[in-house]
Design goal:
The structure holds two protein chains of two kinds. Chain A is of the alpha+beta class. Helices cover 30% and strands 24% of the residues of chain A. In chain A, helix 9 (358-376) crosses helix 10 (380-387), helix 9 (358-376) runs parallel beside helix 18 and helix 15 packs across helix 16. Chain B is an alpha+beta fold. Chain B has a five-stranded mixed β-sheet, sandwiched between helices. In chain B, helix 2 packs across helix 5 and helix 3 (106-119) packs parallel to helix 5 (143-158). The chains are: A alpha+beta, B alpha+beta. Bound molecules: FE2/S2 (inorganic) cluster (2 copies). One FE2/S2 (inorganic) cluster sits between chains B (100-106, 137-140) and A (184, 236, 489).
């Protein structure tokens, strides 16, 4: 019986449930406490920093010899910027680290930090993109006049003709507020110094331990071998924990300098101020439609506020270049013109967050479809049907090749599950009773599991993408799979164990997946971009498959059978068509201890495999019903349906869990969460009382329908699913809200669509109606 | 610095003698002085509920209570929920129903639910939802948390935990 496809309870859970998890703050005992002194202003010249005498306080002057962080893209339109580890002459955003203090415990470190005084000659900060791009604007970085750090432009030759031929041109201006991935566990690290070897072990709450080690070694100019990075249990990341941050550099530097263990555990305020942000985007898009609703062309001007610095290793190109490449999403469009810019400002750094640009791209395309449908008098579902990709492989105007998907089928499934027809009747009744219900849809593709070619095409200096897995069966018949990928709460170890168990004919409980330790795992890229199940999973299947081959040949010798007659199942190596079998542990032991008998197949059962796929696309349709309270502007989600195609589900329960969590974050993006700076660049939302992550009261039941398209783009037939929930939800919710407000003729092009914003739109609509 | 106080904290039935500043929170005392790191800190300002523990059987945000205030009271943390290796019905339900992903919020939800269900075993789903809305989870979208707690509530009603807890 196959383990794949079963909702196996997670192997990770018992220790976490008993409070025996090991998150980074749990490892800080005995270490000195580190606290950063942060800039209270967004821009200015540092005149002096006064530090108390005789205490452990360090500033940029002490860090001479440590290089700044400087991620590179090999593109002519990219301007590299250097991020000093501690601010040197200037401060660039509110919350930038100016100094670091070390004390015996956390409260003493906080006391000491209060005694550090920075004299900063504050200057006018550039906070928003309009100011940054205005004629004659001050340059945030002197060598980047114009404040554009990356700019991609594409224009297909027939674009103008498409617009000339159009029966209807839909022009939209959309905006997305700045958001935080806001993992419940903030960032943090414990750097332990080993006095004998001089090595430092950094335990850190990160998604990419190998990459972090490389980055740290580069800026600290030390051999990578002198550094070990361990990601213990990680309390969520959602992209925020995949960049090299200055704080980690300081920790390793301090441990080496002071020859002792040091710990920095970020607090929530610091997480809002100084960890990365995302989504702050402004899109101006025109769509050319034929009379029958066919989308003829898209012309787009896309701007992303990337903040003061560029994130390592993916760079500030991450949002703008994703936007450029993937705007058309699941729709066929022959002609495409796009200009996508990463604009620098005196705000926190923009880095990946679950979905990267695609929530905004999807919002754009799905709003466009609804607006075009209305103008052309076509049903919103029908206009989508006419434009959705339906022949595979499909090549997009930016050269992306989409493997098999089920775009139309997923939409149909969602329409049926949410009972569109029934809803319309209910909507009419409700409206007659003064209640405003609306329905909205969002169809999207989620590009997942892409290997090195995709990142190389982007011009990345550090090209991620492959995964290496080392799989070994030990003499007791237990399996160890060492993976370069590094989960942060998804349950990856269980799903991989299921995959490996099927290859080797053992139970998943006999498979230990080892991750997140650079001393114990092969080089790899961690978990991001919905890649781990596809790529690490593929590499696990290959590596375990090779071990299985050796196991079978050893068993064949032991049972004097033909190798291809041996099958591995239920813990046994069986000779097919006979009742001959051996327990797998017995075969494993023989392979190690009687290796002389097995020629080619021995000794031992250890294999490596690498997988570097071109990538695949999962797809989904989100549908939701909302009720808008027109008095308060509040939106309540009544039903939320997801029809998702992620290929083969290795562990359906885990897949559903990813969708649930993603949708909740999408709801947050659509309606609640926004990081707000004032005009001086001071961040106003620094607590969970100001930034409003949804609670159980705001998240409705999420209903999921699965479709399964098997594509050859992935060897396990699994497609990534980590981000989809967050990608599709905002568009469905906003479309539903607009539908609810259709009696007012209100259109929404901004997220989060807060009650204030919705009230403002209703007021304007009423004024126009009466004026 | 500030003067320190000698206190005895009784956590999960065991006494811990500590010397703490008055400003030390119960959360920090549990984690750093008692070494009970199962209680997590997600905000330290009373919003997320990750630090929820039971004090005299009532759910309390341990980041908002000082350790000295807990002197003489019975504190229960996630480490005391299972009996040896036998999981509490809530823990079992969370495990079987995928009620956790990263697990960081989990101790807070477990203790919140444990406190609520001990106080009123007959809570309806609506009431449970209402209570759970005081804690944040960033991973699960709450779907399986509510499911887990409701199933555990049923089980606990069917076989109430013995009085010796
Ligand atoms: S840590 Fe206590 S409520 Fe968040
Ligand atoms: S499981 Fe990660 S925060 Fe709840």
């Amino acid at each position: 019986m196959s383990w794949i496809g079963r909702s196996l309870p997670r192997l990770e859970d018992p220790s976490l449930l008993m409070g025996r998890g090991r998150y980074v703050a749990d490892l800080a005992r005995g270490a000195a406490s580190v606290k950063f002194v942060r800039s209270p202003v967004a821009a200015g010249r540092i005149l002096s920093i006064d530090v108390p005498d005789g205490e452990l306080v360090f500033t940029a002057a002490d860090l001479a010899g440590v290089k700044p962080i400087c991620p590179i893209l090999h593109r002519p339109d990219y301007i590299a910027v250097e991020q000093p580890i501690l601010a040197r002459d200037r401060v660039m955003f509110c919350g930038q680290a100016l100094a670091v203090v070390v004390a015996e415990d956390q409260s003493l470190a906080e006391d000491l930090a209060e005694q550090v005084f920075a004299d900063i000659d504050a200057e006018d900060a550039i906070v928003d993109m309009d100011t940054a791009l205005a004629e004659g604007a001050t340059a945030v970085h002197a060598h980047a006049p114009g404040n554009v750090l990356v700019e991609g432009v594409l224009r297909s030759p027939g674009l103008d003709a498409a617009f000339t031929d159009a029966a209807e041109i839909v022009s939209l201006d959309l905006r997305s507020g700045r958001q935080s991935a806001m993992p419940l566990e903030g960032r943090g690290g414990v750097a332990q110094y080993d006095r004998i070897s001089g090595r430092v072990t950094l335990y850190a709450s990160v998604q990419m331990p190998h990459m972090l080690r490389t980055g740290l070694a580069d800026v600290l100019q030390m051999p990578e071998a002198d550094l070990r990075v361990v990601a213990p249990d990680v309390g969520g990341g959602f992209g925020q924990k995949m960049s090299l941050f200055p704080e980690y550099v300081v920790l390793v530097w301090l441990a080496r300098k002071l020859e002792r263990d040091v710990a920095w555990i970020e607090d929530r305020r610091e997480n809002f101020l100084a960890s990365s942000h995302s989504r702050d985007q402004s899109f101006r898009v025109r769509g050319a439609f034929a009379k029958d609703g066919t989308l003829l062309g898209i012309d787009a001007d896309l701007k992303s506020n990337v903040g003061a610095f560029s994130c390592y290793p993916v760079t500030c190109g991450v949002e703008p270049l994703m936007a450029l490449a993937e705007l058309p999403g699941p729709y066929k469009v022959a002609e495409y013109g796009v200009r996508s810019r990463g604009v620098t400002t005196n705000t926190g750094m923009m880095a990946p967050y679950r979905g990267v640009s695609r929530p905004m791209l999807t919002l754009t395309m799905e709003r466009m479809m609804d607006v075009a449908a209305k103008r052309l008098g076509i049903d919103p579902i029908e206009i989508r049907r006419r434009n959705l990709i339906d022949t595979f492989p499909h090549r997009s105007p930016t050269g992306l090749v989409y493997d098999e998907g089920s775009y139309k089928e997923a939409m149909d499934r969602a329409v049926e599950a949410i009972d569109l027809t029934g809803f319309r009747a209910r909507q009419r009744e409700a409206r007659a009773a003064g209640r405003y219900l609306g329905i909205g849809f969002s169809v999207f593709s989620e590009r997942t599991g892409y290997g090195t070619p995709a990142y190389a095409a982007r011009g990345m200096n550090i090209v991620p993408g492959y995964e290496i897995v080392s799989c070994a069966m030990d003499p007791s018949g237990f399996v160890e799979a060492r993976i370069g990928s590094s989960p942060h709460g998804q349950g990856l170890k269980t799903a991989l164990a299921q995959l490996i168990a099927d290859e080797l004919g053992v139970e998943p409980g006999k498979v230990k997946v080892i991750s997140g330790d650079t001393d114990a795992t092969p080089y790899g890229w961690g978990t991001f971009a919905s890649r781990s199940m596809v790529i690490a999973g593929g590499a696990c299947k290959l590596a375990a498959g090779k071990v299985a081959t050796r196991l079978r040949s050893v068993a064949a010798v032991m049972m004097q059978a033909d190798e291809d007659q041996v099958v591995l199942e239920d813990g046994l190596a069986r000779v097919t068509g006979t009742n001959q079998s051996l327990p797998i542990p017995e075969v494993a032991r023989a392979s190690y201890h009687q290796s002389h008998r097995f020629g080619q197949a021995g000794p031992g059962l250890i294999e490596n495999a690498t997988y570097d796929p071109g990538g695949t696309f999962s797809n989904a349709c989100h549908a939701c019903i909302v009720e808008v309270d027109i008095e308060t502007g509040g939106v309540k989600i009544e039903r939320f349906v997801v029809a998702e195609d992620a290929g083969v589900l290795i562990n359906p329960m885990i897949v559903d869990g990813q969708i649930h969590g993603g949708v909740a974050q999408g709801i947050a993006n659509a309606l609640f969460e926004e990081l707000v700076y004032d005009e001086t660049g001071n961040l106003l939302t620094v607590s969970l009382a100001d930034y409003l992550p949804p609670t159980i009261a705001e998240v409705p039941k999420i209903e999921i329908e699965h479709l399964v398209t098997l594509s050859d783009a992935t060897i396990t037939k699994a497609k990534g699913v980590g981000e989809g929930g967050a990608i599709g939800a905002p568009a469905a919710i906003i479309n539903a809200t607009v539908d609810a407000l259709s009696p007012f003729g209100v259109e929404i092009f901004q997220i989060p669509a807060t009650p204030q914003h919705i009230r403002k739109l209703i007021r304007e609509a009423e004024r126009n109606a009466h004026g | 610095m500030a003067n320190k106080h000698d206190i005895t904290l009784t956590v999960n039935g065991k006494d811990y003698s500590l010397t703490v500043e008055p400003r030390r929170t119960l959360a920090d005392a549990l984690r750093d002085d008692c070494g009970l790191t199962g209680t997590h800190l997600g905000c330290e300002h009373g919003v997320c509920g990750a630090c929820t523990v039971l004090v005299d059987d009532k759910p309390v945000r341990s980041c908002l209570m000082f350790a000295v205030q807990a002197e003489g009271r019975a504190v229960r943390t996630v480490e005391g929920l299972a009996k040896g290796d036998v999981l509490h019905p809530l823990q079992k339900a969370f495990w079987e129903n995928h009620g956790l992903q990263c697990g960081f919020c989990t101790p807070g939800f477990l203790m919140l639910a444990a406190g609520a269900l001990e106080a009123d075993p007959d809570l309806s789903e609506e009431e449970i939802r209402d209570i759970l809305s005081s804690n944040l989870c960033r991973c699960t979208g709450y779907q399986n948390i509510i499911k887990s707690v409701c199933l555990a509530a049923n089980e606990m009603r069917a076989c109430p935990p013995s009085a010796d807890r």
